[in-house]
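Researcher: Quick test of sequence recovery. Tokens follow.
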């Protein structure tokens, strides 16, 4: 459910929604969600001073009943 929510949020922010990839796996510290976007959209997803990324993490944590980590990965690296 969380991966679908993150994917929905991200796809509505970016210019290239077909390039969005959201994968989740469990770790010792909780669920870990990795988001990959088109390199041209990375700035849009992170936002000024990380505000958009922080807001996405806040929303995900609010709808979750456990610890969740959301990472936005730069596909160029």
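Model:
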């Amino acid at each position: 459910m969380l991966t679908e929510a993150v994917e929905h949020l991200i796809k509505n922010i970016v210019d290239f929604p077909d390039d969005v990839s959201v994968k989740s796996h469990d770790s010792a510290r909780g669920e870990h969600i990795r988001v990959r976007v088109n390199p041209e959209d990375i700035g849009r997803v992170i936002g000024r001073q990380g505000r958009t990324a922080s807001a996405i993490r806040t929303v995900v944590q609010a709808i979750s009943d456990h610890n969740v980590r959301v990472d936005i990965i730069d596909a160029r690296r």
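The helical segments are 2-11, 42-46, 51-63.
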